[in-house]
Amino acid sequence: MFKINENYLKLQGSYLFSTVAQKVAAYKAENPGREVISLGIGDVTQPLAPAIIDSLHKAVSEMGVKETFRGYSPDLGYEFLRSTIAQHDFKERGADIDIDEIFISDGAKSDSGNIQEIFGTDNKVAVCDPVYPVYVDSNVMAGRTGTFNKERGIFNGVIYMPCTPENNFVPDIPEETPDLIYICNPNNPTGTTINKEQLQKWVDYANKVGAVIIYDAAYEAFITEDDVPHTIYECEGAKTCAIELKSYSKKAGFTGTRLGYSVVPKDLKCGDVSLNTLWARRHGTKFNGAPYIQQRAGEAVYTPEAEAQIKEQIGYYLRNAKTILDGLHAAGYKAYGGISSPYVWLQTPDHMTSWDFFDLLLTRANVVGTPGSGFGPHGEGFFRLTAFGTYENTVEAVKRIASL
Ligand SMILES: Cc1ncc(COP(=O)(O)O)c(C=O)c1O
Fold first, then answer.
1. Residue 389: CB within 6 Å of ligand 1?
2. Measured between alpha carbons, how far is 285 from 279 in angstroms, rounded to an integer?
3. pLDDT tier at 382 (50, 70, 90 boundaries)?
4. Can you tell me the distance from the alpha carbon of 211 to that of 5, in angstroms, rounded to the nearest whole number?
5. How many angstroms does the Cα of residue 222 sit away from the middle of ligand 1?
6. CA dist list (Å): 393 to 39, 50, 290, 303, 319
7. Please, where in the chain does CATH 3.90.1150.10 lie?
8. Among 67, 231, 388, 390, which one has the highest count of C-beta atoms within 10 angstroms of its own C-beta?
9. Are 187 and 193 in contact (CB under 8 A)?
10. 202 near 385, Cβ under 8 Å?
């Protein structure tokens, strides 16, 4: 008789977004005339930039011609894309990353979920609290955690590092020494950032204790602060302790078309074993490559035309974020993030729970956001609003929240 992976039974239901969707659907059904604005989704709404569309069209045409047709891509991804990435995302930022250290993928969700596979199951995992749920759940599935502690809202055996206004949402070095440390910068859900000096401390610490930092830079394109690094490899010593994950989803609107990459430096070793070799082995065995068409679109992201168009799109979302942040501050809310991020993290008024505030916002302002408690116990009493809506809706939503 077969047996299931019982670790899956430890997982908690995807309560957060399904409950949000159910509550919104029920409210709309009861109040058909009301116009509900969603600032809840973490998905882009602007169409792909014209220069990207041109590159997609061209690549599609190539696929219809015998001489230029492509089948499976090379294991690590096409060299034209990896060399473009090495040049623009790393060398131009003073980080020396070789093209053999770059692995093209279908996005950062897959990479952030899969990367744990190359580590032993007895590694101790540290995550920020609140946290992007994939980091925790993928380790739960792999058996790297204990059971869920309902009282505390956390998984036993995982180190949770609180990120709160008190520490400016920068995690403190934990008492217990971790082996794997997940850091997302700029952060989802708090929208806050860790500057280079603060990140350097983590790099030094990881090198000292022999830990690996899994650095998720999915929101790197939103960075506006000069002291926030665009890659962890701007920090000295990061090549011996850090893996970086990047995504074109939020940078270039590829959430539906899919493309990302991971960086595993060759200097990152466990004894004599290079993690680069293990990840290459895993990639070659379990992944057959992102589509050629999409890799050409990724290459096009770095052309001057696309760069200008993408900059405009990011600017649009950042203007929304500023509108939310300024509007909330003017209305007396404590709100964070939103400067180098499409996310604004607000403190609920009068110590309301995240879900009570969700209900209040939905029923009284007809605005949807995401309850912070869904991202971890230290998200309780907080609420996430996103800047991915239209400017007009954002202005209207902020007006409604302010008049509550
Ligand atoms: C922190 C973080 N990492 C990764 C992802 C997933 O990115 P991708 O669309 O490249 O899979 C998201 C998406 O919302 C995210 O918030």
1. no
2. 10
3. very high
4. 27
5. 14
6. 9, 24, 35, 31, 12
7. 7-47+305-402
8. 388
9. yes
10. no
Whether residue 42 has its Cβ less than 6 Å from ligand 1: yes
Q: What is the pLDDT of residue 13?
A: 80
Q: Which mutation among 14, 138, 187, 247 tests ligand 1's pocket best, with the greatest number of atoms within 8 A of CB?
A: 247
> How far apart are alpha carbons 27 and 17 in whole angstroms?
15
DSSP label at 173? P
C-alpha 402 – ligand 1 centre gap (Å): 30
- CA 108–ligand 1 middle distance (angstroms): 5
| pLDDT tens readout for residues 320-375 | 999 999 999 999 999 999 999 999 999 999 999 999 999 999 999 999 999 999 99
For the Cβ of 203 lying below 6 angstroms from any atom of ligand 1, the answer is: no
In angstroms, what is the span from residue 160 Cα to ligand 1's centroid?
20
How many other C-beta atoms lie within 10 A of the C-beta of residue 141? 16
What is the Å distance from ligand 1's center to 328 Cα? Answer: 26
| DSSP per-residue codes, 276-315 | HHHHHHHHHHH-----HHHHHHHHHTTSHHHHHHHHHHHH
Contact 102, 86 (CB under 8 A): yes
With cut-offs at 50, 70 and 90, classify the pLDDT of residue 272.
Answer: very high
Length of the chain: 404
- In short, whether 384's Cβ falls inside 6 Å of ligand 1 is no
- E strand map for 106-176: 125-129, 148-149, 154-155, 158-162
- The fold of the 52-303 domain, in CATH, is Aspartate Aminotransferase; domain 2 (3.40.640)
The whole-angstrom separation of Cα 194 and Cα 391 is 27
pLDDT in tens, 173-222: 999 999 999 999 999 999 999 999 999 999 999 999 999 999 999 999 99
* Pocket-testing residue among 43, 138, 184, 249, ligand 1, by greatest number of atoms within 8 A of Cβ: 249
Ligand 1 contact via 257 beta carbon (within 6 Å): no
In this predicted structure, the answer to whether residue 15 has a pLDDT above a threshold of 80 is: no
- CATH class held by domain 7-47+305-402: alpha beta
Concatenating the DSSP letter of every residue in 47-116 gives PPPHHHHHHHHHHHHHHTSTTT---SPPTT--HHHHHHHIIIIIGGGT----GGGEEEES-HHHHHHHGG
Question: Hey, is 382 helix, strand or coil?
Answer: strand
